[in-house]
Amino acid sequence: MRIGVLCSGGDSPGMNAAIRGAVLRGVEVHGFEMVGFMDGWRGFHDGDTVPLDRLAVRGISPLGGVMLGTSRVPPFPDGVATPEALAAVRARMTELGIDAFLLIGGNGTQTVAQMLDDAGIPVVGVPKTIDNDLGGTDYTFGFDTAVSVAAEAIDRLRTTGESHRRCMVLEVMGRDAGWIALHAGMAGGAQLILLPEFPESVEQICEWVLSVRDRGRSSLVVVAEGFRPAGEADVVTRAGLDGFGRPRLGGVAEVLAPRIEERTGIETRATVLGHVQRGGSPTAFDRVLATRTGIAAADAANDGAWGTMAGLHGDRVELVPLEEAVGALKTVPAARYEEARLSFG
Questions:
Q1: For this UniProt entry, which residues form the secretion signal (predicted)?
Q2: What Å distances lie between residue 231 and 194, 198, 234, 320, 331, CA to CA?
């Protein structure tokens, strides 16, 4: 069997480890021939491939980024899986000698995987996203690294904030789900955590900041990029659309900071962590999780378990149907937010 490995969407720490796990299991144990498509679906459309064997994946597990590259190039024209578009994918697979796909990506990528599976095209999914918002798995690799980077930023901002009696506002990634903000904020002992799922008024935010000042401390506020104050529209400072046609987010910290300062009289500074969260070497947890999911995906292909994704349940990596993974966005439950909110201020 000849399997095409393809990475799509944003990069995520651990992708190289996942490729290595899948290749070593697939080539060395199951006897597959495996090839990688460069820059996601762009490589598939252009026939830009590289052979994947033990030598090709040597030493890549601790490396950040992804050796194959990734992109937001769609698999189908206009992103629509018409019968004609699916027939074109099958024809291209035949031209390239590809029997099946192993798709590494987040919600968008796994949604495409489900479309391919519904059309009878053999595919197995490997879940990655720093946002941890993909269903069917407890955690996605890349999330732990992003949280660790954000938690270190909190530790550093806290010391300078306390020195100058400033309120520090740290913006982390999280368009629709606030998992990074929640976990990093709790790990760093932030006095306030703002998530897309649970709007709070500017008045309430300022009350918490003043409460922190009244007990002799300086506030550290963690805000996810998708947060918007209660009753207000999306807060953005960058015009335009992203690769999926969605409004660009980012800059909510830069909007909140002056409003907090104006209402409280406390000097407030904003820091946008941005793509720093995606870069650098993955944590040990992410390397292990990525390797295990890559191995499970290769085993699934060997068993003919198409239309599945390798998800983490407890301490076990198990195959779940793709529809379970992409059926609904995994957002922060109200109970988890309330657990943290009781300590705000």
A1: none
A2: 15, 11, 10, 38, 20
- Residue 172 above 60 pLDDT? yes
- CB hemisphere CA count around 29 (13 angstroms): 16
73 known member of a binding site: yes
Q: Residue 333 contacts by C-beta under 8 Å, 6 or more apart in sequence?
A: none
Helix residue spans in the chain (DSSP H): 15-23, 41-46, 83-96, 107-118, 143-164, 179-188, 202-214, 252-264, 284-303, 322-326, 334-341
Spatial contact of 115 and 81, defined as CB atoms under 8 Å apart = yes
Distance of CA 226 to the CA centre of its chain: 14
The answer to whether 216 is a known ligand-binding residue is: no
Asked whether residue 166 is marked as a ligand-binding residue, the answer is: yes
Residue type, 25: R
Other C-beta atoms lying within 10 Å of the C-beta of residue 310: 30
3-state secondary structure of 119: coil
pLDDT at residue 234 tops 80: no
Answer for the pair 35, 131: CB distance below 8 angstroms, yes or no: no
Is residue 131 annotated as involved in ligand binding? yes
Give me the pLDDT at residue 258, please: 96
Strand order in the sheet with 2-7: 49-52, 33-37, 2-7, 100-105, 123-127, 308-313, 316-321
Residue 275 labelled as part of a binding site: yes
The mean per-residue pLDDT over the stretch 320-340 comes to 93
Residue type (1 letter), 206: C
Total number of residues shown for the chain: 345
Residues 92 and 80: their CA atoms lie apart, in Å, by 17
b/e code 143-154 from CB counts within 10 Å (16+ = b) = bbbbbbbbbebb
Q: Which pLDDT tens digit goes with each residue over 282-306?
A: 999 999 999 999 999 999 999 999 9
Compute the average pLDDT of residues 52-76. Answer: 94
**Which token pair is 79?**
């992103």
Q: Which residues are catalytic?
A: 131
Q: In terms of pTM, does the model score above 0.85?
A: yes
Q: What is the pLDDT of residue 161?
A: 87
Is residue 236 over pLDDT 70? no
The pLDDT score that the predictor gives to residue 77 is 85
